[in-house]
Fold each of these.
Amino acid sequence: MLNLRLCSLEDIKPRYVQLVLEWRNQKQIREMMFNSNIIQLDEHRKWIESLDQGDKIAKVFCYNGLPMGVIQFTYLNREANIGEWGFYIGNSQAPKGMGTLLGFTAINFLFNDLKLRKLCAEVLSFNKISLSFHQKLGFSKDGVLRQHVLKKGDFYDVHIFSMFKNEWENHKEQIKQQLEEK
C-alpha cells in the first residue's frame, strides 16, 4: 500500500546531479520532452545553476527516502502566481502508482508552499499517459496548439492544461482516496 507520508521533495543536491542527468537522458523520458537531444554534463550543470535564479525550481521526488523522479516548476507570471510544471519518474524500479504520488505531492507543494494560484502544463499529443494523467489529477484542457513542435521530422500538437488552487482543493481528496486504495 502506498503511503503519502513517505513522500518528500528534496533540492537537487550534489549527490543527485549525476542521477538526475541519467534519468533525463533515458530514452523513454527524452522522447516525451520537447527537446529529445542527449543532455551533456555541462548543459545539465547550467540547468541546475539556473534553478538558483528564482524563476525555476526543481526537486527530486523521494518515496521512503529513495529518489523516484523529478518535478520542475517555472514561474510564468510571478505577479499573478501562475506557473508551469514538468515531471517524470526516472527510477525504473518505481512501484505502480508512484507517478500519482509524485503528482499529488508536487501539486500540494506548488499550491500550498509556493502559494500558486494557477498551474499550467503543456503535453505533446503522442504522450497519451501524460494526457490522461493530467485529466486524472483534475486539470482542465484549455486548448491545443496545432502542429506546434517539430520532432524527428514531424509536427505534433501540444495540449494545454491548467488547474486553479480551488479546483485542486475540490479534487485532491478523490486522488488521496485512490492512492490509499492502492
Amino acid sequence: EEYEPAYGFIATILYREKNDIESAEIWFKKAEKANCLFAPVAYEYGMLKYYERRDYEIALRYLLKSAEDDYELSYGVIGIIYYAEKHELNNALNWFRKAEKVNCLFAPAAYEYGMLFLEKGDIDQALKYLLIAAEDNYDLAYEELVKIYHESGDHENEKMWYKRIEEETIS
C-alpha cells in the first residue's frame, strides 16, 4: 500500500538531490492529485516550474499556495516573479517586505528588490539591497554596484566591486 503524503517528498528529493526534473514532476503531480501538496512541497513544485520550466504563471500559483500556509521561503520568490516577470511593483514590494520581515530575503530576492528601488530612482534603498545580495556573493549585484558607484563618483567603491567581478571571472 502506498503512503500518499510521501509523494511530495519523493518529488522534492528527485528535484533537489537527483536533479531529475521529469521524474520529480510526475511525483509532484501525484502528490497534487492525492491532495498532498503541502506548503513545502508546493514551494518546491513552484521552484521547479519557475527555474526549470520557466513557467512563472504556474510557479506563482504553487508559490502562493505555499505562502497561504505561511511557508516563508516562498515570499521572496513571489516578489521576484511579481517584479521580474509581471512588473507589478506594488505586489513585488509587499512580498519583498514580507520576506525581509521574516528574515527570508535571500540574495536573488534582495537583488531584485534592489533593482526595483533602482527603477524607482531610490538609490539609497537600491544600494542597501544590492549590497545584501553582493555580500552573499550574488554576482549579478556586483555590476549594478559598479554602475551606481561610478555614476555617483564613488570611485573607491566602484573599483572595489569591479575587482570583485574580475576575481569571479578568473576563478
Amino acid sequence: MTPAEQAAAASRLCAACGMCLQWVMFYHVRLQPGDSPKELSALGLKLKRRKGGELYPAAVPGVSRIALLDLCGAPGALPALFACRQLQRVSEGAITEAAALESIQEARRRVAEVEEMLARAGRTSVKRPLFKRYEKVMAVPVVDAASEPGAVELRDQLTLAMHGLDVFLDEEFRVLPSAVAEA
C-alpha cells in the first residue's frame, strides 16, 4: 500500500469510527515521541501537564472534526496512540479496509448497547467519558432491589456489556504504550 493509499484508507476509517475522539477509546492520551504539542495545540487540543508526561483530552469538543480527520490522513502527523490497531493492520496489509470497517461497526454496536443501558440508568450526558458515566451508575448503590425492579439486572447487563466493549477495544483498537514504543 502506497503512502497515499494509506492516507486515504486512514481518512475513511477515521471518518467511520471516531471513537478515539469521543471519549470511548480513552479519556486522556499520553504524548508520544514525535507528537508535536505545538501542532496539537494549534488544532485546539488543550494540553494538561501531569507527572510522567504531557496529557491532553482525547475527546475534543469544539475542535474541527475536519481538521482532526485531516490529521488522521496525514501519515506521521497522527498522535501515536490515535493510530489504532485497525489503522496499523490496514497499513501493514494484515487486514483489508473492509475488515477494519467490520470491526468498527462491531465496536459502534457495542458502544450503542452500553449507551442505551446508561440512558436507562439515567446517565446520558455525552460530555462525560463513557467509562466515567458507567462508574457513576455503578457507584450509586441499589438500596432496595424490590423497590427498584430491574435495577440489579440492568447493572449486571451493563457490567457485562462494558467489560465486553473494553476487552474488544483492547484486542482490536487500542495500541498499548509498549507497542507504540516498538513501532
Amino acid sequence: MKRNSVRPAAVVLAAALLGAAVPAVAQGQEPAVTQPKVNLTLEQRFVIKELLKDLKVTPAPPNSETAIGATVPATISLNPMPADVAAKVPQIKSHLFYLADGKVVIVDPKENKIVDAFN
C-alpha cells in the first residue's frame, strides 16, 4: 500500500514544480523571438524603406540596438515620421524612426521602445 501512496505524492510534487514555472512565462518573460508591435505588411515595409532611404538623417552608431521591445538609448537621435510615409502607412504616423546598420527602426514615442525593425 505504501507504494501506491508514493506515486500520487510524486505526481503532486511534479505538478507543483511544473506549475511554478508557468507563472514566470505568463508574467511577461519574452520569447526568444519577439513579434513586431505594429502590423506592417511586406509591401508597407518596402514603401517605408523606399521613402526613408534618401532622407538626410544621421544614422545611429554601428551595432545600435534594434531588438523589438528594447528601449532606445538617449544617445540615438529619433526622427519624426515624414508626411509621405504617414500618408501611405497611417498606423505609424505618430511613430519616430532611426536608421541603424541598414535597418529601419520604428519607435513608439510614448514608451520610447522599438516596435519594429526591418531591412
